[in-house]
Amino acid sequence: MTGKRGLTQQHVMRILGGESPDVVAARLAPDLANLPDVPAGSAKVTRERAEALWEETGLDQESRKTLLDGAAAEELPLYQGNIENAIGLMKMPLGLAGPLRINGVSAKGDYHIPLATTEAALVASYHRGCRLLTAAGGCSAMVLYESLSRAPAFVFKTAPDACRFIIWAMERLEDFQKVAATTTSHGKLIDMGVTMEGNHVYLNFEFTTGDASGQNMVTIAGQAICDFIVENSPVSPVRHYVESNLSGDKKASTKAYTTTRGKKVTAEALLSAELVKKHLHTTPRAMEQYWQMSAIGGVLSGTLGIHGHFANGLTALYLATGQDAACVAESATGVTRFEVTAEGDLYATVTLPGIMVGTVGGGTGLPTQKACLQLMGLHGAGKARALAEVCAGLLLAGELSIIGALSAGHFARAHRKLARDRK
Amino acid sequence: MTGKRGLTQQHVMRILGGESPDVVAARLAPDLANLPDVPAGSAKVTRERAEALWEETGLDQESRKTLLDGAAAEELPLYQGNIENAIGLMKMPLGLAGPLRINGVSAKGDYHIPLATTEAALVASYHRGCRLLTAAGGCSAMVLYESLSRAPAFVFKTAPDACRFIIWAMERLEDFQKVAATTTSHGKLIDMGVTMEGNHVYLNFEFTTGDASGQNMVTIAGQAICDFIVENSPVSPVRHYVESNLSGDKKASTKAYTTTRGKKVTAEALLSAELVKKHLHTTPRAMEQYWQMSAIGGVLSGTLGIHGHFANGLTALYLATGQDAACVAESATGVTRFEVTAEGDLYATVTLPGIMVGTVGGGTGLPTQKACLQLMGLHGAGKARALAEVCAGLLLAGELSIIGALSAGHFARAHRKLARDRK
Amino acid sequence: MTGKRGLTQQHVMRILGGESPDVVAARLAPDLANLPDVPAGSAKVTRERAEALWEETGLDQESRKTLLDGAAAEELPLYQGNIENAIGLMKMPLGLAGPLRINGVSAKGDYHIPLATTEAALVASYHRGCRLLTAAGGCSAMVLYESLSRAPAFVFKTAPDACRFIIWAMERLEDFQKVAATTTSHGKLIDMGVTMEGNHVYLNFEFTTGDASGQNMVTIAGQAICDFIVENSPVSPVRHYVESNLSGDKKASTKAYTTTRGKKVTAEALLSAELVKKHLHTTPRAMEQYWQMSAIGGVLSGTLGIHGHFANGLTALYLATGQDAACVAESATGVTRFEVTAEGDLYATVTLPGIMVGTVGGGTGLPTQKACLQLMGLHGAGKARALAEVCAGLLLAGELSIIGALSAGHFARAHRKLARDRK
Amino acid sequence: MTGKRGLTQQHVMRILGGESPDVVAARLAPDLANLPDVPAGSAKVTRERAEALWEETGLDQESRKTLLDGAAAEELPLYQGNIENAIGLMKMPLGLAGPLRINGVSAKGDYHIPLATTEAALVASYHRGCRLLTAAGGCSAMVLYESLSRAPAFVFKTAPDACRFIIWAMERLEDFQKVAATTTSHGKLIDMGVTMEGNHVYLNFEFTTGDASGQNMVTIAGQAICDFIVENSPVSPVRHYVESNLSGDKKASTKAYTTTRGKKVTAEALLSAELVKKHLHTTPRAMEQYWQMSAIGGVLSGTLGIHGHFANGLTALYLATGQDAACVAESATGVTRFEVTAEGDLYATVTLPGIMVGTVGGGTGLPTQKACLQLMGLHGAGKARALAEVCAGLLLAGELSIIGALSAGHFARAHRKLARDRK
To answer: Is C10 on the interface with D (CB under 8 A)?
Structure first.
């Protein structure tokens, strides 16, 4: 059983577990016998509804006690508008990294950063990086660009029709802006890209979204613009969709590097060899060398940027602060760069081409999430750019810590130790 | 201010907010004045430590009351080994989708699927898809392959040295398997890939990891193999690292399609035009047409697969069941395919090349997470493949629902309605 | 020898061919013994120089007779400025595809398209597609956008310095345009993109280049702008480069889809089931189905677009018409889309996000290349957009033919037959 | 006209050239008037056929004199089997780079490398790099792996059917090998990968192809295997295709990095600071710094590897030696790496994951192409690996030269000078 075929065969035998392919295949057929009732969904979030759902479904009562204990039942209504078919609450531990000193355009000061995670060593690692950065007088950070797109698509009979439509649409940006403005006071339509593929036209509407993350805002504005287009276009589309998958929504894409989804943000710091030695037990050159090798490792594996583990810190901060954690799929990409300066210091920087963050809307007003934002002084209007800068600073801290550990050969040890005494 | 330059200029003016570039740049310089104390981190998770941390940091006491209320303070020690610098608990609402009938190799039955999210409309949308699938007798699902890699890297003086090392290492797979076995009884080293780039050698160790997600397992085994190599190799590497960024850890990569990270899994269903009409208010052909356009939209935006929003359901299920949510960055990719059959039905399928899931270890033993797994009968040993099949089934439900909504023109409406009455 | 390791081992044994690793490795060491003379290069292209080079190098005289026969020696000086160290001429056969009727914005008429290739079946396949398109009244084609970028990069001490530089540079676009205008009367600087990554700044200058392909034009203009910047910038870069690899020059990149390199062009046609049957022996639905499967096949293999074999026809036309064939690396990407219309016809389209073509400069004035352009009426000023439209039409023909063959199961047969009677 | 919309509008006005959209759109409609005769294609390559084609088409007689002069007409029959609808010959100038000393596993010695190109400065730049490498005692080079795939695809009713098929197919590798062996004595089926996506199954057959490039070989073998499968499979596919676009044929793909298309090859050299200064007028550290910046530039633009301009040299060598130049689209990708060693030397390496080369078959037997191969001693059986090593060595030379020029600030100057005195 040489080659990849051999491995696949071994896997199949493992999966079949002694049963014949036919027996296993039979298990996979649709089965219309004894179909269960599927309850009509409910957007109402109350204790009574939740309890009714537990009753109807007949699910495990032990689970119910854990997920819908007295306190949970009481505060459940606070989640109205953030969940449907509510049955209780999930809890995750919060750990604190920092304080991290950030010298940003919007964020300025020493930030205690709350992280929600269940992964051992994660908070410890980011905390270590924060220590180092703060000892160096902090990192600088800045939002480089803001934009969120919604990309409706229109199908025409032929490409010439599509062309005529494009010419018309390009003259209507001001109209589209007016239409968008009727749906939101926070969002602003700032540009419109046009992508034509045969008789398909994608209009890529770019918005600023104030301090909200803004996905719903641009969806609703996009729909209003589509309605206007359908009503007014001299060339009628055969069909159209409010979103065509061109916007990059909830997906890692290289488009992020040429445009922006959310906020493009960067952070940097200059660290003396002495500080690197003290905090990371390695040298600037060793870290530059690891960076170089890992850059190529990433390219060889077909990843979209060059970085270590943006997803770890970003997810934990998103969860703590009520961001849409599914956006990690699109936001956790970018470039880390470490290099030795002429003076022998370590220059370290991270750039994220598009992170989705907000300090109003979404989950930011829920009890623990709001508390986490308030703990940093970042809840509410006027704070979204500062939160983006904190994200960048945190990820810089994390990259320093993990690449330090890998350079020094301590990576496995840290994980072994911190996960060991789990209950 | 034409062109992209014009937009960038507008953004800069927005960011500067009337201040001069020099004033703003000055804010960004390192600042060594009044450096804050950074507490030594602590892996001990107790009420006392948490309270001490709140005291020392002098953070907002309102936040403390929310994050570390009486109940939280009491159960905090249960999170020992999953967090450091613990300060309290984060809470998210749980909603129920389903029951979803799954006819899988490992999963078999009607699953009530708990989803943790703060995004309006998410549970409702997945629930709608589950309804449809269950009405059709369920979806089939199967794990196609399992493997998790750790990819140490070794630097040599020259490529010929690297070659000699490779020839030696290839003969030692059995030794490496023995070494790996000393560190874990659940994980098994099953293959070793070799990637050479000049004088760099990447050894890609592939493991099965039992019912655990397994990242720590393969890190520790990988370190042991590295130690063995350094001790025994006839050609000494100039330097080496236990992980080289080739494994794809926590990053979307195209490598996932030619290898696997975690579990490769697929789900499919055949749906009559009648059911599509009843549940989604559209037709199989309309959904095929949207699929086609969105496939191209995705390609044009540089995404790695073809799908709608895997990240949404996957994140919510990961969070509910104690998976490492940061893995969404690598797991939420794959292929959705909708087509009309010769009989006029809708054939719908999703394939995920590598999702990271476990039913033991990580966050799976924490109170609410364990309860969510138990509610599905999927906690503990022997359940990981079934959980992977549930993931695939859920995502198939979600793709049907969202693409149905986009095809029918209902997408924006649903979001507007469900987010409207948030508190 | 299971798994990938087993295959690699087999390969190594094949390569070593019975020799020991040490013996083989020894062959690879630098060898300073008997270093050959390396002649100083020469840009002068004359018969005498060529003959002198043959003498000095002592290379095989049989080869000389073939590469520098009497006719070649005589016309060699015509290649002055297109080659260095000239030793003779290479010859490739030319075949004719078409006439292909093109209804383009710039190209209009029936084009006999010369293709230079040594691959059996290539011309025959494209010819077959042209036949079909012409029988349908031709394909439409149009250039959607034009732009060529040169992307200098500037390194600063810190990100704040980089920011100050950007703010200055954005105000200087008009100056940059003036500077660029001193170097070229054909090229025009139309926009400037800015990409910042930590303390690195990439300025992406976009030009139109008239009827030339334009790489040298934008390099020279880019250098002049860099010189201006270094002299005038209030913040001095630590170092800078006229090209930073961000422009996508000579490399396939997803950036092509969000910007354009050269000319973005599309072609389309509507083909009755009858014509599809007559010319391709298959049906519109069969071709749509193949398209769908191959779209996913491409995505799974990590390609950048969705198409069959753009590179084949594009290379052959580039070679025949004096284009830079190395640009195939960047130009041969894009989207092919086939679908069945409501009426049962086949809608077929190709879109190429960026092809590099010119009708002046480069190799377009050389004897056979110029003759090929003239044969289509496309030599000289004012013809570049028409040539781009011919490219798109040709590639549409090729995609129809190959996908037709694959759908009908005739693909292998055609290759077997046409390569069979090679001499 | 701010933003991208503004640029697009300007472009549209340029394209319309004063005409109304409707007038221009009308030009694009299918036109069935006066359809031209499309000659039946012909695979026969004779002077008579060519002349007849010129007569029938009524094309420009000046072009004919250039493309089918007396010598061309005479040697035309030699191209039988490499072209259809032959009308004459295309000529390109050949320049010589080197001699380049290569210390390879298969290539060993000083190679004068013929390059066919029409781009000024190309040969001069590669020649400069060869000079440097040879002065250093040459570069080492080795083929790391060989494999060429053909990836048929099979569609089934359902995924369980697909599974049963896979289980059957995996047991039949030996049968498939026997079937393949009936079609070729040079090619060998060495492994079979399996990719399942819903009810779609891709079988990825990997072959070694002897000294031929091998695309036709694997197509014909693949077809034979498909025929065997259709006849013998216990589960009949609904439809199937001999190639599914998964093989990466003629397209850049990231798959190349995890598998191989053709030959995976690497070359490296160690160069003293003194040699770098003498030949490139720069320093190892300056080149390392440029490399680092350009690596990120490439990543930001969404390219698939990290390199400067592999396409240039590879295309020129492919053209000179009768390779399929369209393969540049897939072959011109990989990794260049420059770094400063602890001793202050420059370590330079290139790795190409898959280049398509052969020394028999295709265009390798044509007059000038064969002469070019013979000039290097690389024509015929047993030479393909050596040719691959020469490719790698040449590209290393080219990367050194171009990155040297960019680091030293000489890039634009060289292009301006060498293209200046074109006729």
So the answer is: yes
Rounded Cα distance, C392 and C107, in Å: 11
Residue B399 distance to chain C (closest CA, Å): 17
**Phi and psi of C138, rounded to 5°?**
95, 170
pLDDT band (50, 70, 90) for residue D2: low
pTM of the model: 0.97
Whether residue A275 is found in the same domain as residue A137: yes
Is residue D16 assigned to a domain?
A: no
State the smallest CA–CA distance between residue A194 and chain D in angstroms: 7
CATH of the domain at D208: 3.30.70.420
Do residues D128 and D269 both lie within one domain? yes
Could you tell me the CATH number of the domain that includes residue D328?
3.90.770.10
DSSP designation for C39? P
Residue of C nearest to B257 (CA): C300
**Are residues B134 and A246, on separate chains, in Cβ contact within 8 Å?**
no
* B194 and B86 inside one domain: no
Q: What is the pLDDT of residues C229-267, one digit of tens each?
A: 999 999 999 999 999 999 989 998 888 888 889 999 999
Strand partners, B348: B269, B338
C196 touches chain A (CB under 8 A): yes
Q: What is the pLDDT of residues A31-62, one digit of tens each?
A: 999 999 999 999 999 999 999 999 999 998 99
A84 domain-assigned: yes
Distance CA A149, CA D57 (A): 52
Asked, for residue A228, whether it belongs to a domain, the answer is yes
Last residue of a domain, one of C91, C108, C126: C91
Nearest to B320 among A90, A309, A374 (CB): A90
Please tell me whether the interface predicted TM-score (ipTM) of this complex is above 0.90. Answer: yes
Beta-carbon separation of C140 and A163 below 8 A: no
Contacts of A223 (CB under 8 A, 6+ apart): A242, B411, B412, B413
> Is residue B133 domain-shared with residue B159, that is, in the same domain?
no
Q: Which chains touch B (3 or more CB pairs under 8 A)?
A: A, C, D
In chain A, the N- to C-terminal Cα span, in Å, equals 42
Going by pLDDT thresholds of 50, 70 and 90, the confidence category of residue B420 is low
Asked if A127 and B85 come within 8 Å (Cβ–Cβ), the reply is yes
* Residue B99 lies inside a defined structural domain of this protein: yes
Within an 8 Å CB–CB cutoff, is residue C32 touching chain A?
A: no
User: From B348, which residue of chain D is nearest by alpha-carbon distance?
Assistant: D198
CB-CB neighbors (< 8 A) of D366 in chain C: 91-93, 118
- Cβ distance of A192 and D3 shorter than 8 Å: yes
User: Number of folded domains in chain C?
Assistant: 3
- Residues in D touching C423 (Cβ below 8 Å): 77-78, 80-81, 365
Element holding D122 (H helix, E strand): helix D122-135
Range of the domain at B192: 152-241
Shortest distance between the Cα of B358 and any Cα of chain A, in A, equals 13
Look at residue A200 and give its three-state secondary structure: strand
Q: Which two tokens stand for residue D205?
A: 């057959």
CB contact under 8 A, A159 and C266: yes
The least confident of A37-41, B99-103, C201-205, D273-277 is A37-41
The beta-strand segments (E) located in C237-288 are 239-241, 262-271
In terms of CA atoms, which chain A residue is nearest residue B75? A93
**A210 and A182 both lie in a single domain:** yes
Residues A112 and A193 in one domain: no
Active site residues of D: 119, 324, 415
Alpha-carbon dihedral angle through residues D335, D341, D344, D346, given to the nearest 10 degrees: -20
- The answer to whether residue C119 is catalytic is yes
CA A408 to centroid of chain Cα atoms: 30
Q: Inspect the interface and report whether the beta carbons of D248 and C97 lie closer than 8 Å.
A: no
**Same domain flag for B128 and B83:** no
Kindly name the residue from C51, C175, C268, C324 that is annotated as catalytic: C324
Q: Which two tokens stand for residue A252?
A: 């890692």
Q: Are A219 and B121 in contact (CB under 8 A)?
A: no
Question: Among C91, C113, C134, which residue terminates a domain?
Answer: C91
Same domain, yes or no: C373 and C279: yes
